[in-house]
Amino acid sequence: MTTTSTDPHDAAIKLSEAYRILLTCHRNPDGDAIGSELAIAELAEKSGVKAVIVNRDETPANLRMLPGADRVVVSNELPEDFPEKYDLVVTVECPQIERSGFEGLTQLPILNIDHHPDNPAYGVVNYLDDQSPAVGEMVWRLFGEVGVLPSPEAATNMFTALSTDTGDFRYSNATGRAFRAAAEMVDAGAQPPQVANWVHNNRSLASVRLLGESLRTLRIVCDGRLALITADQEAFQRAEAGPEDTEETVNIPRSIAGVEAVVYFKQWEPEVVRISLRARGSVDVRKVAASFGGGGHPNAAGCTVKGKLTEVEEMVAAAVAEALGGSV
Fold first, then answer.
1. What ranges do the domains of the chain cover?
2. Which InterPro entries has this protein been placed in (predicted)?
3. Counting Cβ atoms within 10 Å, is residue 270 exposed (0-12), middle (13-18) or buried (19+)?
């Protein structure tokens, strides 16, 4: 029997019944994914459950200072002892199972924890809440349901998840619910100044170089409402950068007066373009991403499109411009 709920009760039961869990998240993890994984690992272990975190892609440099971040295993493959030595998979902020980057996860029951509205409830137990500002907030409630007091380190990781997914509490999901959870996390020992320093003052040199490469391509179209930036294979090579060095770049053009949407085209391998979309105002970039096989949130979404970079740029830019009621 499968269950789906915005309440953490069933998730707490499923977690407590496990012996050893495998935690993973979406490819190119962000603060919400990493912070939530680390917090769940502590919750599991305080409940007598062994936990292993395996992600497909590297932890961004500005998140490697998080407490326990060195326990995250980065691999192209699942562990050699999977599935035999595990009895539960926990997917964190992973709206489609394919976005984990791993094949074979469905060999075991899945506890699916996510706040994306397009999550199809692929788990045996689905703890899904699209009204939550971040999965980190959902994990905070999971601690309360289990009755386990998080350590200051876990509180800090959950605060990181919450603050990064709300854009330091600047996005529309920075609701009263978000601030209440943040206050409770701080009371439990979270350190906001430390988190801000880690997240914003620990960028890799490669990410700064790639930022420069990307901003050189800045185009403002659609009567000043749409910003487009690109990092092609040559840009990645010149910057000596990888996928983990792209996380914050898309947010820079969004600060330009009059810009309502940003599209960041990233190509680090031939004929495959990763696209990040950001918005402020009324445009729903999730719908645009979904039309290209992706997903996300109304103000932050992404997709992957195969094809020549210039053709993909033209096609996706036109779709976003149309959503804005204009043209490129």
1. 3-200, 205-323
2. DDH_dom, DHH_sf, DHHA1_dom, Oligoribo/pAp-PDE_c-di-AMP_PDE
3. exposed
Sheet containing strand 226-231, edge to edge, reads 219-221, 226-231, 261-269, 272-279, 300-306, 295-297
Contacts of 22 (CB under 8 A, 6+ apart): 52, 54, 78, 79, 82, 86, 88, 89, 90, 105, 108
Query: How do residues 274-303 score in pLDDT, each as one tens digit?
Result: 999 999 878 999 999 999 999 888 889 999
Structure tokens at 268: 């680090």
d(Cα 75, Cα 304) in Å, to the nearest integer?
21
205-323: which CATH topology?
Answer: Diaminopimelate Epimerase; Chain A, domain 1 (3.10.310)
The secondary element (H helix, E strand) that includes residue 55 is: strand 50-55
Kindly report the pTM of this predicted structure: 0.91
CA distances in angstroms from 128 to 92, 95, 121, 326, listed in the order given: 10, 10, 8, 35
Cβ–Cβ < 8 Å for 156, 191: yes
Q: Cα angle at 278 between 274 and 284, to 5 degrees? A: 110
> Out of 3.90.1640.10, 3.90.78.10, 3.30.70.240, 3.90.1720.10, which CATH number does the structure's domain 3-200 have?
3.90.1640.10
